[in-house]
Design a protein that fits this description.
The protein has three domains: 52 residues, Orthogonal Bundle (3-methyladenine DNA Glycosylase II, Chain A, domain 3), CATH 1.10.15; 248 residues, TIM Barrel (Alpha-Beta Barrel), CATH 3.20.20.20; 121 residues, Rossmann fold. Helices cover 40% and strands 17% of the residues. The protein is globular, with a radius of gyration of 27 Å. The longest helix is centred in the middle third of the chain and has 18 residues. Helix 10 runs parallel beside helix 11. It is of the alpha/beta class and 444 residues long. An eight-stranded parallel β-sheet has the order 10-9-8-7-6-3-12-11, covered by helices on one side. A three-stranded mixed β-sheet has the order 13-15-14, sandwiched between helices. Strands 1-2 form a two-stranded antiparallel sheet.
């Protein structure tokens, strides 16, 4: 992004205030800090628009794979470290099938891919893509298997072949699904680029000798008319992979080195344990897409959790909607509990209540996504906030008794809450893991 003074030189300098800011210099400073958009100025010239559009383009290009609500977006990252702002597009995971495998084997793989779906703190974790490798090197076989796989899943496709004759027929057959084509190499890049241009598909550029040669090849592909590029430098070993991923990210983000300013691709080779290590390292260190030969529950669940932890916004905790949550089938005599709306807190507490088998009402207070103790220390969860929730959420119409169980960690607010709300306050266990026994004992 250019400096405020560089932006100011391109503005009309009329200080008209039509943008909502008193002076053009102040507007330039807002633009430099990315607090406003250029379209707020109705008098800006086309030259300024072109200048700012080029200079403000993200250091890593956004590449979209697939169509519709299953579209996978990779790239468009602006930070080297997550705490500086946040990472935007999570590492995508793809499962590969081979066109020489049997139909039953392919179907079994697709079913295993579909089964890898679960809910973690309110977010659905699942595989993102399915890839087909042209081991047969036969155009008709490859195209037929791709059509078969495509009919069994609506996930975006990854097509893997370095033979342009094989890739051409397959890519054209599913061009409407906008698959990712793998790969353009120093030997075939001209023909593969033509296929990508003709089908409108993103293209992987594959060069294993050096990052300099990879950058040269991306410039050739871009110069030939393909801009949606994904980088594959080859995964020789973990050390080389980590080094190359870091160099590419640093050059792109810090130096704005456009020839390497693209998403990155990694194959998780080896057995399941080795693949898990490659995938974990890739997820932590900038890989945009990881492709697996095999997947299973013990491999993918920790990877999903790792990915979610890295790609959540560190400045905005995951939250659930404040209000009343019914756990089980509560009655007017059921207990009422209260907690905060930090997702991990909510799902931990609700899970422990479910374990107790005691139908209950759980009130969730808006703590701006903070956990109980953090919210209490920051005055985001106190007697006043809890009282307002009790009075406004409608719980008084649902129960015949006015008793509320608060977390043991915030027992200090029990007296004030009872005074303000008029409800009897019961101090629960300090940790929600004690709720099953606590609720069962009270229900007996």
């Amino acid at each position: 992004m250019p400096t405020a003074l560089e932006i100011y030189q391109k503005l009309p300098k009329t200080n008209c205030g039509d943008c909502g800011v008193p002076t053009c210099l102040a507007f330039a400073m807002q633009l430099a800090n990315q607090k406003v958009s250029l379209d707020k100025c109705p008098h800006v010239s086309e030259e300024a628009k072109e200048f700012l559009a080029a200079s403000a383009a993200p250091p890593i290009r956004l590449v979209k794979i697939g169509t519709g609500d299953k579209t996978v977006e990779i790239g468009d990252e602006t930070e080297l470290f997550r705490h500086e702002k946040k990472f935007f597009h999570p590492t995508a995971y793809a499962l590969m099938v081979d066109d020489t495998s049997s139909p039953d084997e392919r179907k079994q793989k697709i079913e295993s891919l579909k089964s890898l779906t679960f809910d973690r703190v309110g977010q659905i974790m699942s595989m993102d893509m399915v890839g087909v490798r042209a081991s047969s090197n036969d155009p008709a076989t490859f195209a037929s298997v791709i059509q078969e796989v495509s009919s069994q899943t609506d996930l975006p496709l990854l097509l893997i072949s370095e033979n342009p004759d094989v890739m051409s027929q397959a890519a054209k057959a599913v061009a409407d699904k906008k698959p990712l084509l793998h790969a353009a190499t120093p030997e075939n890049w001209e023909r593969m680029t033509e296929i990508a241009k003709e089908t409108g598909c993103p293209l992987v550029v594959h060069e294993t000798t050096s990052l300099d040669n990879l950058a040269d090849l991306t410039e050739k592909v871009k110069g030939a008319g393909v801009e949606d590029i994904v980088l594959d430098f080859g995964t020789k070993n973990l050390g080389d992979m980590l080094r190359n991923l870091t160099i590419i990210r640093r050059l792109s983000v810090k130096k704005k080195f456009r020839p390497l300013g693209y998403p990155t691709f990694v194959f998780a080779e080896g057995n399941l344990n080795e693949a898990g290590i490659v995938a974990a390292l890739g997820t932590m260190k900038y890989a945009s897409l990881v492709a697996f030969h095999e997947v299973d529950v013990p491999l993918m669940y920790p990877l999903f959790a790792l990915r979610q932890n890295i790609y959540t916004d560190p400045q905005k905790p995951i939250q659930v909607k404040p209000g009343i949550y019914e756990i089980g089938s509560p009655t007017p005599e059921s207990p009422v509990l209260i907690t905060t709306n930090f997702s991990l807190t909510y799902f931990t507490v609700s899970g422990d209540i479910e374990t107790s088998k005691v139908p209950s009402y759980l009130l969730v207070a808006d703590s701006e996504g903070l956990s109980v103790m953090t919210a209490f220390a920051a005055d985001k969860f106190n007697a006043e906030i809890a009282t307002d929730l009790v009075k406004e959420c409608g719980i008084e119409e649902k129960v015949s008794q006015k008793k509320i169980i608060i977390p043991g960690q915030v027992s200090r607010m029990s007296g004030k809450l009872q005074e303000k709300s008029g409800w009897e306050v019961i101090v629960g266990p300090r940790d929600s893991s004690g709720l099953p026994k606590f609720l069962k004992d009270r229900a007996i």
